[in-house]
């Protein structure tokens, strides 16, 4: 559909310049189908983070992937991450401040401890890199290939690609830990909240937890109202 959308722009331009006599898309409508990208649940993220990988390449890919899970940065943003992109934020803690590759929207997010540990692990390697990059990132194709191998080793039956990390950050790391969706949207660098809603699904665990909190509140309200009732001597209850 993306390819057809771009082609449609060219045919519309051609029609305006009278290079073609009719619009080939006149009777055709583009229809997009929502694709629900998988994300890692908490236990799966812990498994990938803790598994011992003998192969150095697999270990590097795992670390870069987990880093993205705890930052929400996409592949190209992680690849281009430089020393100057990690700065002291408003709270004097370390923050990542970059611009999104696609929209050039500024992204400002506090560095979580898990992500910080990965940067520290590759601190010496980054000093040796001439490009001043913070992490050794392979090509997109290589990373996705190695992630398939890692998924097998961890017995995770999901189509693991690098983009899954971004969905994991939005869903498991932030939303399920009660971070407001508006905050998640800012950290992901989205200009529209509707874009974030595609990433941050309200999954069953959160629905269950929210409903448990609601039940607890309703019980407290009921017990308070009951304790405020006394007999008026005629066998009836009155509120005091």
TrEMBL record:
GO terms for molecular function: DNA binding. Keywords: DNA recombination. The keyword Cytoplasm does not apply. SUPFAM superfamilies: DNA breaking-rejoining enzymes. CDD domains: INTN1_C_like. GO terms for biological process: DNA integration; DNA recombination. Signal peptide: none annotated. Residues 35-212 form the Tyr recombinase domain. This is Site-specific recombinase XerD. It comes from Leeuwenhoekiella aestuarii.
